């Protein structure tokens, strides 16, 4: 048997052990869902992003349900773990009515949340009727409760995104009807962005809900790692972890009983916390230096970093990502396809990022499958 055959064999064994997609969007191409049972990946973690895909993710999860946290180990079937959330690209479509019953006029709302200020009335008229954040949170809470392993996602912040322009007649005609509507597809971009302050409001509200239900969150961040950290930090303020040395110092000063109480406050979330217990920075594009902010021992959230072939290992940033992958602790790394259709291409993308990460980390493929499988499990289920 030649070297290549041996390598292929090792990769095949890894697939059998289990490869997990920590972040993907197959509901963007619903016709591809029929290919899911024939895939090599064991479990897909499927994100919802906008008004058009929340119920689709709900339906697909109901079709491939995980009945307990070990079922995927016992069964050769393929499974879906759903995630429900509102992506920052669509954050402008929501108004914050959590402390008011007033429904803003659509034009006024869009003029407030978009930047630069929109004077182009024709463009404003093409935007959809804005939605109530309060209602979305109620609906999302119901969906999360319906799916006991569901995550919050995809949520986040994006400083570079611009709204697409309205559809042109010839674009509408040539559009692929198998794609779930609502995304950019091939449209040209407008000059308008969503104000970061508004994105933060939508993100923070969703992270609080994740905290209330004790669910992990999958986070999108483009040129906004500092801002994401700021939002999380404002939520975890007062809940920072204390080191064992600090604990000892406090217990000798105040007596063991008081120290026990301290530990409960810091670690025992018998009452819900205002932030998710675990997050995944999906297709992480930040610098290695920034990892420290999230991996600091005081941070009361378990932070994972996920990588995709599509975003991280194609294009100019693929050199930089090698240092980032090396710097991440073995137990905090995940892989994902971030792809918009299920099937062979998704397996191919996952296989490719799997091999890249194993090579950078100098793991054998078998060991890589074991580590990455365990990490996915810890991120999604908590243990
Ligand atoms: Zn995504």
UniProtKB/TrEMBL annotation:
GO terms for molecular function: hydrolase activity, acting on ester bonds. Residues 168-190, 242-272 are annotated as: Disordered. It holds the Pfam family TatD_DNase. Signal peptide: none annotated. InterPro entries: Metal_Hydrolase (IPR032466), Metallo-hydrolase/TatD-type (IPR053044), TatD-like (IPR001130). It comes from the Eukaryota. PANTHER family: CUT9-INTERACTING PROTEIN SCN1. This is Cut9-interacting protein scn1.
């Amino acid at each position: 048997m030649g070297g290549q055959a041996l390598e292929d064999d090792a990769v095949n064994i890894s697939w059998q052990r289990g490869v997990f997609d920590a972040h993907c969007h197959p509901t963007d191409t619903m016709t591809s869902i029929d290919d899911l049972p024939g895939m090599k990946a064991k479990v897909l973690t499927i994100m919802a992003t906008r008004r058009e895909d929340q119920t689709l993710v709900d339906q697909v999860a109901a079709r491939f349900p995980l009945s307990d946290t070990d079922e995927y180990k016992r069964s050769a079937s393929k499974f879906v773990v759903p995630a429900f959330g509102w992506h920052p690209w669509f954050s402008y479509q929501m108004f914050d009515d959590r402390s008011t019953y007033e429904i803003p006029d659509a034009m006024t709302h869009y003029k407030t949340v978009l930047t630069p200020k929109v004077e182009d009335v024709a463009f404003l008229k093409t935007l959809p009727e804005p939605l109530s954040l309060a209602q979305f949170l109620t609906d999302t809470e119901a969906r999360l409760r319906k799916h006991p392993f569901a995550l919050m996602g995809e949520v986040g912040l994006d400083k570079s995104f611009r709204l697409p322009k309205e559809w042109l007649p010839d674009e509408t005609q040539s559009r692929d009807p198998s794609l779930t509507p609502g995304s950019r597809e091939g449209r040209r971009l407008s000059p308008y962005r969503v104000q970061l302050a508004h994105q933060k409001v939508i993100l923070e509200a969703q992270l609080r809900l994740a905290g209330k239900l004790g669910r992990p969150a999958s986070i999108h961040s483009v040129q906004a790692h500092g801002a994401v950290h700021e939002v999380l930090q404002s939520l975890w303020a007062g809940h920072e972890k204390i080191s064992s040395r600090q604990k000892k110092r406090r217990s000798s000063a105040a007596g063991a009983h008081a120290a026990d109480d301290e530990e409960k406050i810091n670690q025992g979330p018998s009452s819900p916390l205002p932030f998710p217990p675990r997050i995944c920075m999906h297709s992480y594009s930040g610098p290695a230096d920034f990892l420290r902010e999230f991996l600091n021992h005081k941070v009361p959230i378990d932070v994972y970093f996920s990588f995709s072939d599509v975003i991280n290992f194609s294009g100019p940033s693929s050199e930089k990502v090698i240092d980032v992958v090396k710097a991440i602790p073995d137990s905090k790394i995940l892989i994902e396809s971030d792809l918009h259709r299920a099937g062979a291409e998704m397996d191919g993308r996952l296989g490719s990022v799997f091999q890249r990460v194993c090579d950078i980390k100098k793991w054998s493929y078998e060991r890589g499958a074991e580590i990455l499988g365990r990490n996915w499990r810890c991120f999604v289920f908590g243990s």
